[in-house]
Amino acid sequence: EAQVTQNPRYLITVTGKKLTVTCSQNMNHEYMSWYRQDPGLGLRQIYYSMNVEVTDKGDVPEGYKVSRKEKRNFPLILESPSPNQTSLYFCASSPGTGATNYGYTFGSGTRLTVV
Amino acid sequence: AQSVTQPDIHITVSEGASLELRCNYSYGATPYLFWYVQSPGQGLQLLLKYFSGDTLVQGIKGFEAEFKRSQSSFNLRKPSVHWSDAAEYFCAVGVLGYSTLTFGKGTMLLVSP
């Protein structure tokens, strides 16, 4: 089944303790993105990647890192989490950004709580 | 930069009644437009998308949307709502060649018996 898989689904951590949220897609998609969803704010893009070793900042990149060493994986790293990073996180992938292939598939989300 | 406005935060519709969710976008050229649905505790599922051509697009689950360039709108419609349609709906705009999808803040649909 074509899908985007995120792990973990739920995570509670303490301020300052480094964590990684994994994301993997099995569709051979070029593009991958991370979004955070907060009540009243909708979804905002954190980082995106156009291909292996090519990443760029989205609208809210502060406090996050990403890497794209393999096409299928796009982990989100919080090196020193803070309570304002408590949120619902989504990873998504798309085959491209052209008229025939633009369309993001989303993972099921990771609910992160930082105390 | 592009932006999306969903004017209604919540909408309540009776089961069997028709539905229209509003979406207005701001972008200088022709945008790529999407509607996603998020059921409680779930990820986002693509309902439909518009790139060009016929301005009335059909999607999954009986939904359709109409692109109106003159009104900068891309409203989502369904003729008869089912209780299982209760969810949050997001309109999003993309730009050719750019990977960023800009989302509206969402509209929560409640379905009453």
Describe what this molecule looks like in 3D.
The complex is a heterodimer of chains A (115) and B (113). With 115 residues, chain A is mostly beta strands. Chain A has strands spanning 4-7, 10-13, 19-25, 31-38, 42-51, 54-57, 65-66, 76-78, 87-94, 105-106, 110-114. In chain A, the strands form 2 sheets. In chain A, strands 2, 4, 5, 6, 9, 10 and 11 form a 7-stranded mixed beta sheet that branches. Chain A is globular and about 45 Å long. The relative contact order of chain A is 0.32. Chain B is mostly beta strands and 113 residues long. Chain B has strands at residues 3-5, 10-14, 19-21, 24-26, 32-38, 44-50, 56-58, 64-68, 73-78, 87-94, 102-103, 107-112. Chain B is globular. The A-B interface holds A 4, 31, 33, 35, 40-45, 48, 50, 58-59, 90, 92, 94, 97-99, 102-109 and B 32, 34, 36, 42-46, 49, 51-52, 90, 94-106.
